[in-house]
Structure formats: structure tokens, C-alpha cells
Design goal:
- This protein is an alpha+beta fold and 206 residues long.
- The chain has three helices and twelve strands.
- The strands form three sheets. It has an eight-stranded antiparallel barrel with strand order 1-2-9-7-8-4-3-12. Strands 5-6 form a two-stranded antiparallel sheet.
- Strand 5 and strand 6 form a beta hairpin.
- The longest helix is centred in the first third of the chain and has 36 residues.
Length: 206
């Protein structure tokens, strides 16, 4: 009777030790990933026909906008689109049209987060929109000059501004190459590159 109880007790102790080891492994895994998800902004690599651009996204400042942008990135939406509007000393705009200036179908418009304290400075990326404050979908632009007049001023339609949600951290020379291409009028659109500047892909780096 004592032997049986002793064996049962050993079995219980072994199970407890195994559970402790499993719990320890889980803790190690969890804490190992904490630095990855805390304080580290997402970075994407935009491959274009004129070179690569790396962009850091400010999820802490513009969570709705960054989540929306990454949803398009992860679905491959931007692959094969073009920079359809290029104005030297202003900005380069893309993310919504394919060659031939055919517009792609997008997700629903998002809330404008322009009042996040970020400014439309050279090298920042912001959401393009219509006159409707909350009309941004997939199209974005990269500022090639300091365009502070595009910043949030007040909650009126005229003063709401354009939401900055990231900045170029590598490849600004490629942005400058794009801003310098020859442009002209095509159909209803002005400032269209004479030769397509294609966004081959946008993918997460981290």
C-alpha cells in the first residue's frame, strides 16, 4: 500500500516538474517577443522601378492610418500600381492606379488623423484625400519639400490638413529621382510621369 502511494506520489511530482518546465518555456517565449512588439515601429520596403525606399510607420501617432496602410500592403494591393502624380518641389503621389491610369477598387475611407502633431516635412509620407476630410483610402504621397501648410490647423474642412503617418528612412535619393521625372497631361490628369514609375511591391521589413 505504501509502495503504491509512493509510486503515485512520484508520478505527481514528475507531472508537476513537467508543468513547471512548460510554464517556464512559455514565459521565456513571451518575454522574448515583448521587445519586438513594444516601442518598435513597423518598417516597409517599397520597391519601385527606380529603386527601393524604406519607410518607418508611426503606429503610435496614427494607428488607424498605419493599420489601413498595412492592410493594403499585406494584401498585395500596391503591387503594380504607379506614381500617377509627380510635382517637383512638392510631392510624389501613388497607391491607387495601375498603368493606363485605371483606378483600383479600395477599402472604405478612414478617419483623418492629421491632428496627431506630425508635420508634412520633406521625406514624410501622408494620406492623399479629396475635399472630404475623412475620404482617404489607399493613395498616399511622399513630401519632397517642407509642406507645413498641409498640416492640421483646426477641425474645419479647410484647416484639417493631411495625415502624416511615417517617414522615409532610406532611399530618399530614389524619391528625388522620381520627383525629377518628366511629366505631362494624360487624359483628365496633369503631372503624370511620361514613363510609368511603377511600385513593384511594398512589403514589411519587420
Amino acid at each position: 500500500m505504501l509502495l503504491v502511494m509512493h509510486g503515485s506520489l512520484n508520478g505527481i511530482l514528475i507531472q508537476e516538474n513537467q508543468m513547471k518546465k512548460i510554464f517556464l518555456v512559455i514565459l521565456i517565449v513571451v518575454f522574448a517577443f515583448i521587445p519586438v512588439f513594444s516601442g518598435q515601429n513597423p518598417v516597409v520596403v517599397m520597391k519601385t522601378s527606380l529603386g527601393d525606399i524604406e519607410i518607418e510607420l508611426y503606429h503610435d501617432k496614427a494607428p488607424v492610418t498605419v493599420n489601413n496602410f498595412l492592410a493594403y500592403v499585406d494584401s498585395g494591393f500596391y503591387d503594380g500600381t504607379v506614381f500617377h502624380r509627380v510635382i517637383n518641389n512638392f510631392m510624389i503621389q501613388g497607391g491607387g492606379m495601375i498603368p493606363g491610369l485605371q483606378e483600383k477598387r479600395t477599402l472604405s475611407p478612414i478617419k483623418n488623423e492629421a491632428g496627431n502633431g506630425l508635420s508634412n516635412l520633406r521625406g514624410t509620407i501622408a494620406m492623399a484625400r479629396t475635399q472630404d476630410v475623412n475620404s482617404a483610402t489607399s493613395q498616399f504621397f511622399i513630401n519632397v519639400a517642407d509642406n507645413r501648410y498641409l498640416d492640421y490647423k483646426n477641425a474645419s474642412p479647410a484647416g484639417y490638413g493631411y495625415c502624416v503617418f511615417g517617414r522615409v528612412i532610406k532611399g530618399m535619393d530614389v524619391v528625388d529621382r522620381i520627383k525629377s521625372v518628366a511629366t505631362g497631361r494624360r487624359g483628365y490628369y496633369d503631372d503624370v510621369p511620361v514613363r510609368d514609375v511603377v511600385i513593384i511591391s511594398i512589403k514589411r521589413k519587420n
